[in-house]
Amino acid sequence: MRIADLLRHWKRYWELYQVSKANQDTVFSNREIDTVKTTLVIGLGLIGGSLALALKKAGLGGHIIGCDRDQDEVELAISIGMIDQGSVRAEDWIEQADLIVISVPVIAMESVMAQIRPLLRPDTIVTDVGSSKGSVLASAEKVWGSLPDNFVLGHPIAGSEKSGVAAALVDLYQRHKVIVTPAENNPQAAVRCVTQMWQACGAEVLSMDIPHHDEVLAATSHLPHLLAFSLVDTLARQDESLEIFRYAAGGFRDFTRIAASDPVMWRDIFTANQRAVLKALTEFEQGLAILRTAVEQSDSDAMLGIFTRAKSAREHFSRILENSAYIPMQNKLIHYRAAPGGALSGRLRVPGDKSISHRSIMLGSLAEGTTHIKGFLEGEDSLATLQAFRDMGVVIEGPHQGEVTVHGVGLHGLKKPAGPLYLGNSGTSMRLLAGLMAGQSFDVELTGDASLTKRPMERVAKPLREMGAVVETAEGGRPPMLIRGGQQLKGIDYVMPMASAQVKSCVLLAGLYAQGETQTTEPAPTRDHTERMLTGFGYSVARNGASASLQGGGKLVASDIDVPSDISSAAFFMVAGSIAPDSEIVIEHVGLNPTRVGVINILKLMGADITLENEAEVGGEPVADIRVRSAQLKGIDIPEDQVPLAIDEFPVLFVAAACAEGVTRLRGAEELRVKESDRIQVMADGLLALGVDCTVVEDGIDIVGGVIGSGSVHSRDDHRIAMSFAVASLRSEGEIFIEDCANVATSFPGFVELANGAGFNLSVEDESL
Ligand SMILES: O=C(O)C1=C[C@@H](OP(=O)(O)O)[C@@H](O)[C@H](O)C1
Ligand SMILES: C=C(OP(=O)(O)O)C(=O)O
After folding, report:
1. pLDDT tens across 77-106, in order?
2. Which pLDDT value is given to residue 368?
3. Which keywords label this protein (predicted)?
């Protein structure tokens, strides 16, 4: 199994976990576990013993009886209060048990089942703890002919290298996962009972089918154990006195801890899950052979590729476990509580520009040579782009404090990814990648989170099809997008129906792979980072008024990139510094590309006190420090030509409008309705909840400046909405509670710390699972 597959499995775990979590209330509305008066645990090892302890502690399972083939273990279990009664003869207790848990090694399951069978009441619920489910099912089928209705297979993933009653822990299952693998004939009530039993022990219960379970476990648990056993054994054989272990460093200890696990149990597991383990082992051997060749040939690129991919996968995996990665965004539940008031002061630097960060990875990957990037935005959106290129075989080092090194593979060097490219919350990633993927030789599927899945993709699919690409979308032109490889694209002259830099960039990037000239003409100027960066990478782009064009078939030459701070992130502090009384701040090194400065123009028209200092040009993009002082803002009619130049800044501009004297009118901004949320409606809902008078129209809004009250607002999956209401608190009468703010990490990691450092008063409430 490849790393990408593993990650997908873990992601699936989380999805399943979400489902099980969501079902939890329903599960607990029918408490089958409460009807259990007698529980029989057969096998008092670490797993069975810990279960008995946890059930006792939870006061569930009624009378707990424990059996073990070792009389001493039974006596010990009784003496420490782990069980109420017990013996070495399970058959003596079967008839009285309402719930039986078979927690013996998989190899012994069949004989225990044979013991149970003649005495089992039809209404008794049975479950097991075997770590390979196919073999347990096979044993049950051998004993009963088919799996009894009330036998629900399960597997707690909470092993340890220790075993026996003495090793049992009352909290072994706390925050551990248990997988149940229900069969079609299992009644809901039986599945619920087993689920409730594990949940009562503190476990998170997931559900999956048996073959899937066995493959996931073979790859994530059985294979690592096999390798640890083998490595230690190999080294031990090399040096009979075991002298070598004296010098063993932490790496050896970390890697081989699990080689101290119970040999008999593991022999049984490998016997029971033989097929899936061998499959995982074959894939591992293939991976190892590739690495071996890389080492033999001193192939530095190949080694770096493997190591950086593995490092990023491992970090990603850790973040999943810490519940902080973007992939399980839906699992993160963070709210902001914004206390009213505050004056801002000091100098601050917001993170790197998101649009430029995306493009630096894309062009760096497709260039010939190595691209060094500084100031890269380590936000989830640009990291999604980075991961997508790693998934297509590009070696990317970093990011380490904003530094990234991309080992370009050339325009035709990408490899087919092992699965769909997951782009999280990021519209830019999906639309720009769609253009690039249209020119590849392989098929690709582009997917994203719930918010991205609602966004329109037909706007890029249509011109791509005109170029000869084969693009499928889901209903209504939404993601996922399936892009078929191997098509010869031809250049088109595309007159864009909407002002969108993403559409323009998509078409131009597809144009790199097209025969002849590709031209875009936009109805209004939009950000031109693609055009600038292509030029910086040695690819000629002709620009003529609203049109940009390029010839297909050229090449990109690696170029170093210094990403300026993101004006879209700086905008929150521009508005904050303007509306908070007695404030003066400097936002350093902000990118001031003329196609992005609408927010400054609009705020100045409203009377903001904004001045630029230290103006310079870095890597083809103008930058400056922005000084902002408090000012009394006034309502204006926002000039329509500024709309595309400030497209991402409107949520926070609406907050400025709410603090201004008079009415601010916005028109020609229907594009706001198809961002991460419908930004017109969602902002209006929040402003109204805070007592601000506003009226929504199809393409804009009228906001009457006045008093911002207090209350609760919702981000609706949109980072910029969350941050905008945090800014509003600087002038609110009371506290603003902002629901669902984890998405802020897509564009502005560290927002809360930076804002509080400047004078905000935000606290974070974490309701993550
Ligand atoms: O090209 C880009 O990097 C972006 C273009 C804009 O989207 P549209 O092209 O949909 O307006 C903007 O909203 C987005 O945050 C980034
Ligand atoms: C619209 C935005 O981003 P994207 O389209 O990339 O999701 C944004 O960051 O405001």
Report:
1. 999 999 999 999 999 999 999 999 999 988
2. 97
3. Amino-acid biosynthesis, Aromatic amino acid biosynthesis, Cytoplasm, NAD, Oxidoreductase, Transferase, Tyrosine biosynthesis
Summarize pLDDT for 488-531 with one digit per residue, the tens.
999 999 999 999 999 999 999 999 999 999 999 999 999 999 99
Separation between Cα atoms, residue 517 and residue 97, nearest integer Å? 78
Average pLDDT, the chain: 91
b/e string for 705-714 if b means 16 or more Cβ within 10 A?
beebebbebb
State the DSSP H helix or E strand holding residue 17, giving kind and residue range, or none if neither: helix 3-29
The Cα diameter of the chain in Å comes to 90
Q: Which CATH number fits domain 216-283: 1.10.3660.10, 3.30.428.10, 2.40.50.140, 1.20.58.480?
A: 1.10.3660.10
d(CA 680, CA 674): 10
User: Under CATH, which architecture does the 31-208 domain have?
Assistant: 3-Layer(aba) Sandwich (3.40)
Ligand 2 contacts CB of residue 192 (under 6 A): no
d(CA 277, CA 285): 12
Q: What is the pLDDT of residue 2?
A: 44
Q: Transcribe 104-156 into DSSP letters.
A: S-GGGHHHHHHHHGGG--TT-EEEE--S-HHHHHHHHHHHHSS--TTEE-EEE
Q: What is the torsion angle, in degrees rounded to the nearest 10, for the CA atoms of residue 745, residue 747, residue 752 and residue 753?
A: 100
Per-residue confidence (pLDDT) for residue 330, from 0 to 100? 44
Average pLDDT over residues 194-212: 93
* Best of 648, 671, 672, 716 for a ligand 2 pocket test (most atoms within 8 Å of beta carbon): 648
- Sorted by where each begins, the domain ranges of the chain are 31-208, 216-283, 332-348+564-766, 366-561
User: Cα torsion at 430, 436, 441, 443 (round to 10°)?
Assistant: 10
Strand partners, 252: none
From 3.30.930.10, 1.10.287.130, 3.65.10.10, 3.30.200.20, which CATH number describes the 332-348+564-766 domain?
Answer: 3.65.10.10
| CATH class of this structure's domain 366-561 | alpha beta
- The residues, any chain, with a CB within 8 Å of residue 26's CB and separated by 6 or more, are none
455 is known to lie in a ligand binding site:
yes
Query: What is the whole-number distance in angstroms between the Cα of residue 680 and the centre of ligand 1?
Result: 16
Residue 678 bears catalytic tag = no
Q: Which atom of ligand 1 is nearest to the CA of 358?
A: 3
- Which one of 648, 685, 702, 718 is the catalytic residue? 648
Is-contact 516 533, C-beta < 8 A? Answer: no
Q: Which class for 251: exposed (0-12), middle (13-18), buried (19 or more C-beta within 10 A)? A: exposed
Q: How far is the CA of 579 from the centre of ligand 2 (A)?
A: 25
| Average pLDDT over every residue of 446-455 | 92
Q: Of the given ranges (16-30, 564-578, 603-617), which has the lowest mean pLDDT?
A: 16-30
Annotated binding residue 675:
yes
Residue range 288-330, pLDDT digits in tens: 999 999 999 999 888 988 998 888 777 766 655 543 323 334 4
Give the residues surrounding ligand 1 with Cβ less than 6 Å away. Answer: 355, 428, 500-502, 505, 527, 647-648, 671
pLDDT at position 314, please?
Answer: 79
This model of the complex carries an ipTM of 0.98
CA-angle at 727, arms to 721 and 731, nearest 5°: 130
- Give me the sheet containing 700-704, strands edge to edge: 663-666, 700-704, 693-697
For residue range 50-79, list pLDDT tens digits in order.
Answer: 999 999 999 999 999 999 999 999 999 999
CA dihedral 723, 728, 729, 732 (to 10 degrees): -160
